[in-house]
Design a protein that fits this description.
Elements (H helix, E strand, L loop, with lengths): L1 E12 L17 E10 L2 E4 L8 E4 L4 E4 L1 E3 L11 H8 L4 H6 L4 H10 L2 H17 L2 E7 L6 H17 L3 E9 L8 H11 L7 E5 L7 H13 L3 E6 L8 H6 L4 E4 L5 H9 L3 E4 L1 H6 L7 H6 L4 E3 L13 H12 L3 H8 L1 H6 L17 E4 L5 H4 L6 E6 L2 E5 L7 E3 L1
Parallel strand pairs: 1-4, 1-5, 6-7, 7-8, 8-9, 9-10, 10-11, 11-12, 12-13
Antiparallel strand pairs: 1-2, 2-3, 4-17, 5-14, 14-15, 15-16
Helix pairs in contact: 4-5, 6-7, 12-13
The protein binds zinc ion (ZN).
Length: 409
């Protein structure tokens, strides 16, 4: 089976093949030259036209990107918290919202009350919307379980979801998200220690914040991740500066996520490390948070990634083109910087940059065709530019009206 995207105005290509990531001070070396991309037997085979391809896709006027990787979402979850958002923007404090039954605890209740089928249906619908916005791979997290059994259920449902979708998923156990009722943070971490050997996930994650877990708990989670061969990820410096980044780096974290309140002294060491800075501008905007120092991180050569943070509380956002638009505007990033953060570097975060995240021969043929040049993505803010999506060379999504692009030999 072979398919060829022909005559694109732009093809996003790394400056060289085989890079596990590209530091953001080198983002300008990404090329966006006109070209064609051919996929054979699921893998990218050639970067030129193949007149013998069985399926020919007219990419004229558009841009070909690697499939977008959403490296930080909280799927699967149950229900929404729209009423809470209305209270929040009207100035009601989080403590008050929590007292009225809102917050993470309300999502945990909804998750516990929903059947497996209901959770999978909601997540499956969202995944379809994500596909239509170009997301071919995304991360799932547990974290709305708030009990050992419900956390394991969340990870089991994530795996089931992965089996049902055309997209691929990576699974993260966010075992320390909020302190469950009846526990102290220390007490829950003891529970986490017993839980980790039962977990099937690529990474462990923790939420470090005054209302959640401490920097010492982060260190403990780092030890657990190392002992069990999982990557360490952490939600840090979102609402306050806890100086968790040096501790995350010491424990070899794969990523530190949020960083809206990153301490200036921690920026240089983070930028020099192989730990990715995952920025979540959707959460920053909707939560009226501080803006992460995206420009400074990029200039200092950090491995920056962007993600949706898709969750019912702080970021019910799934469109990565929208996230790119936010990053460009709020961090002062170029389009190349935003696209790098949604492709190769996002794949690095989930440990998949060896076969995903860039257009190069031998990588998987997960591709997105935009109906416009990439400069339009941030500029026509909020518009979905995705015309067509391929997974391993198979057309899995065509936006209505774009069918004319697909033809036979
Ligand atoms: Zn998150």
């Amino acid at each position: 089976m072979s398919v060829c995207l022909r005559g694109a105005a732009q093809v996003l290509r790394p400056p060289e093949d085989g890079l596990p990531y590209l530091r953001h001070d080198r983002a300008s070396s990404l090329s966006l030259a006109p070209g064609s991309v051919c996929v054979r037997d699921g893998l990218i085979a050639a970067l030129e036209e193949d007149p013998d391809a069985e399926v020919a896709i007219d990419a004229s006027g558009g841009a070909v990107l690697p499939g977008l990787v959403d490296c930080h979402t909280h799927l699967p979850f149950a229900g929404w918290r729209a009423e809470e958002y209305e209270l929040k923007v009207a100035g009601v404090a989080y403590e008050e919202i929590a007292l009225r039954g809102g917050g993470i605890a309300s999502s945990a209740r909804a998750f516990a009350e929903a059947s497996d089928t209901e959770v999978l249906e909601q997540a499956g619908e969202l995944a379809l919307e994500m596909l239509a916005h170009g997301t071919t791979t995304f991360e799932c997290k547990s974290g709305y379980g708030l009990s050992a059994e419900e956390e394991l259920r969340a990870l089991r449902l994530a795996a089931e979801l992965g089996g049902r979708l055309v997209q691929r998923i990576a699974s993260t156990a966010l075992l320390a998200h909020a302190v469950p009722d009846g526990y102290t943070a220390d007490g829950w971490m003891e529970e986490v220690e017993r839980l980790v050997p039962r977990v099937e996930a690529q990474a462990l994650d923790i939420y470090v914040e005054s209302v959640a877990f401490s920097v010492a708990h982060l260190a403990r989670m780092g030890e657990l991740a190392a002992a069990h061969g999982m990557a360490l990820r952490a939600h840090v410096e979102q609402f306050s500066t806890t100086r968790s980044v040096p501790v995350a780096l010491e424990h070899g974290a794969r990523s530190v996520d949020h960083l809206a309140c990153l301490h200036p002294d921690d920026l240089g060491p983070l930028a020099r490390s192989e730990c990715a800075a995952v920025l979540l501008p959707g959460a920053e905007l909707l939560g009226d948070e501080h803006v992460a120092p995206g420009r400074a991180l990029a200039d200092a050569g950090a491995i920056c990634a962007l993600a949706s943070d898709m969750n019912p509380g702080t970021s019910p956002v799934l469109s990565l083109p929208l996230v790119a638009g936010l990053a460009v505007r709020r961090y002062g990033w170029s389009v190349r910087e935003a696209l790098l953060a949604l492709t190769l570097n996002a794949a690095w975060v989930i440990g998949r940059s060896g076969d995903l995240g860039s257009i190069e021969p031998g990588k998987r043929g997960d591709l997105v065709l935009l109906d416009c040049p990439t400069e339009h993505v941030p500029y026509r803010f909020g518009r979905n530019p995705v015309a067509l999506v391929l997974m391993e060379g198979r057309v899995v999504y065509i936006r209505p009206g774009q069918e004319w692009r697909v033809g036979g030999r």
